[in-house]
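Note to self: keep these together.
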Amino acid sequence: MDGLPKIDTREGQPGRKPKPPPASERTVESLGPAECEMKAALSSQGAGFILGLLFTGAAAAITWYIVRQIIAVRGQMPFWADKGFTWGIVLLATLMVFMLGVVGIALLCWVWSSFSFRLYLCPEGFHYVQSGKPFVFAWDEIRIVKETVTHEHVPIVRGAAKYAMPTRTNHSYEVTRKDGHEFVIGADIVKEFEKLAERIKAVSEERGIPWRVTEERS
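Structure:
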């Protein structure tokens, strides 16, 4: 998850905006030869594709129904009434179509861009390529790693009974560079994610990189 550098406002003279930390100057070549290549998880791509089709399909179906109703009455209808089809309903339905269409197209575009995602594990760090743009995470530029352990219960069981059911434990890791740029990895994001997570953990122990663990239940 890429973002703007975080600024520490605790330092600097009062009334003066502190300078942001410098962005990473490491290059892909400085990390050494790639040891392995990882792609985006197919589970996320499949889910995004299905949801994208559902949203765009719903938008198309509502549009077809609206047009059919307008043609049936030849556009002769009030703006609002207690019963029947009105221009007010057309306006509300149009807004719904717009929202469904935007979400659906955004999901399909994300799925398309994820096909170009590649992550390379190297001796001095890792880097990934998204939409043709490289992002470099050198081991010596990592400030902190946050591990989130999520214990998921069976969703169909409600109430106190769900705590008696077996849980599924998922791990995700948020890697933050010294300049504030972040990257989140998980089983639903990167293939062979366990291999990358084990490497990050081993390097963190070796180099003394802070490691914070948070547990959540759902």
